[in-house]
Design brief:
By secondary structure, this protein is an all-alpha fold. Helices cover 76% and strands 0% of the residues.
Length: 327
């Protein structure tokens, strides 16, 4: 499942990780957030092939390693939510929407069942009721992309970028679309507008910092990312980014301004939080290669390639260092 919403994408990824780790408490917590903030997507998620496969794998593990500590007890939040969501989704296609939100919900379900034309009709109906509904526009653009109608999708995203919005969530979504179309200055202005409303929102600070990297405004990026990291602990369940993402991006910015010792520390912190965040291995390799520490550089390039051996840039870096070690 793919989403044009960084917060939603993060929450779905967190559920997947939690279920793969058999951590149903966290999975239920993240699902509760999705149910509250994205009810139509909760319907889809619980019935998606990916989610059902993960649940099946999880149940197989439980069968082999049964434990009262990990079993979902009758009446638990996860069980009750799943039953409710499945019932809601089954009923969704039968309703006759009357509000923009109901049309969006039905259109989203139709998109998942690959009834794209009917889904587009729902999104258009929602836009007839509320022409500036950003959720309807983004959902329509996403559906057109799934239909491989990329020119039509691009026109819809143009409408997204031209729509005036005031809510923080809408501003974040709009900024994210700007970034996807490489309109980084417009994205930055949108994030700044969101920060005027919620000055200490860790999510906006993270998105702003990451956008500033693309604009090569590295010191400002560092400042924004450091503040995002500081604010992260206030409510980690509500953040759209992993802490290692922020440390990694901070390291990229520090390396760009020549602060390589601090950059290495940031990359190490990222890997300390998640040893499988392999992007940091490449960045460490680059710094070590610049310092002519070729053995260390090669080790880090190889570590990256353990996770992704198709990245041509890293493959070339590895081959380059191997040649230097022969000299």
């Amino acid at each position: 499942m793919e989403f044009n919403d960084p917060a939603l994408e993060h929450l779905v990824n967190k559920i997947t990780v939690a279920l793969n780790e058999n951590n149903k408490e966290d999975a239920a917590h993240y699902m509760d957030i999705i149910i509250d903030k994205y009810p139509e997507v909760a319907n889809i998620l619980m019935n998606s092939i990916e989610f059902q496969n993960i649940m099946a794998q999880n149940e197989d593990v439980e069968g082999e390693e049964a434990s009262d500590d990990f079993a979902i007890q009758p009446g638990s939040a996860m069980e009750l939510d799943e039953e409710k969501i499945i019932n809601d989704m089954n009923a969704m296609l039968d309703i006759e929407p009357t509000t923009a939100q109901e049309y969006i919900q039905k259109g989203t379900v139709l998109t998942v069942t690959e009834e794209y034309e009917k889904a587009l009709e729902c999104f258009d109906k929602a836009l007839e009721l509320d022409e500036n509904n950003l959720s309807a526009l983004i959902s329509k653009g996403n559906t057109l992309e799934l239909m491989e109608k990329f020119d039509d999708a691009s026109k819809v995203y143009d409408d997204v970028m031209n729509t005036e919005v005031e809510e923080v969530y809408d501003l974040m979504s709009k900024g994210y679309i700007f970034e996807g179309h490489q309109r980084y200055n417009d994205a930055l202005k949108t994030y700044d507008k969101a920060l005027q409303k919620e000055r200490y929102n860790a999510n906006i600070l993270f998105l702003k910092g990451s956008c500033l990297i693309k604009l090569e405004q590295y010191q400002k990026a560092i400042d924004s990312l450091e503040e995002a990291i500081e604010r992260y602990s206030e409510n980690p369940y509500e953040t759209i980014f992993e802490l290692e993402n922020a440390y990694h991006n901070k390291g990229v910015s520090l390396h760009a301004i020549g602060e390589d010792d601090d950059a290495l520390e940031a990359f190490s912190l990222a890997l300390g939080l998640n040893p499988e965040y392999y992007y940091s291995y490449y960045e460490i390799g680059i710094i070590q290669e610049d310092r002519e520490k070729y053995d260390s550089a090669l080790k880090n390039y190889n570590k990256f390639l353990e996770y992704d051996n198709t990245d041509s840039e890293v493959v070339e870096a590895k081959e380059r260092v191997e040649e230097l070690l022969k000299e």
